[in-house]
Design a protein that fits this description.
alpha+beta; 2 domains; three-stranded antiparallel beta sheet; 3 strands
Amino acid sequence: MSFSRPNIAYAVSKLSRYTQCPNQEHWDALARLMRYLRGSMDYAIEYNGFPAVLEGYNDANWISDSDETKSTSGYVFTLGGGAITWRSVK
């Protein structure tokens, strides 16, 4: 996920919080993620080289859910149309 599938980074991050004691809702979410992966095996990060411009994007969620106690933020940098680095943290 960290290097080749940024499109599942959020789902994997959320699911990894419940590895100690998952319930049926978490197993259902994992099954849905696995179905998505099976259906998207041909997805890839493509670097077309034009334009060779470094672009960066970021976003943050400042605790909009009352059940959460920490904010979530993240960023992605692209070069030539493909992601070269990204991060999402709680």
